[in-house]
Amino acid sequence: xxxxxxxxxxxxxxxxxxxxxxxxxxxxxxxxxxxxxxxxxxxxxxxxxxxxxxxxxxxxxxxxxxxxxxxxxxxxxxxxxxxxxxxxxxxxxxxxxxxxxxxxxxxxxxxxxxxxxxxxxxxxxxxxxxxxxxxxxxxxxxxxxxxxxxxxxxxxxxxxxxxxxxx
Length: 167
Fold this sequence. Notes:
This protein is α/β, with parallel strands linked by helices.
């Protein structure tokens, strides 16, 4: 059976609304795929704070931003128009292992990838991670800010997204 991987962006949601979304969809483990898990506008989503309050709610927190994070400091990671070079990201050490971790966790329970952008079409979790996970046998479902679910195959990606499969 293909494991289902959910994704969500915390956007500007309150802690309570975010928890409601996780509960509504039965999420057991959150894997944070933000390279820099801090937020000035929503400090309750800073890595330490998030891990602590998720634990009190019985939700596991794993940090996967080192392997799967999309906001990189290296200029080589970006095209001249500012968009992330998917091939460059996928060539980083640990990327494949990060995907394998997500798939393994999804075999054990309901997993959700977390980033900050609410719209998965504007986030690396929708443009890079989801296609790679589906190519490895996963099924990706995005939790939208209003709580609706969107199968990844139905996601409308912007025309400037560039992808190249390396593996």
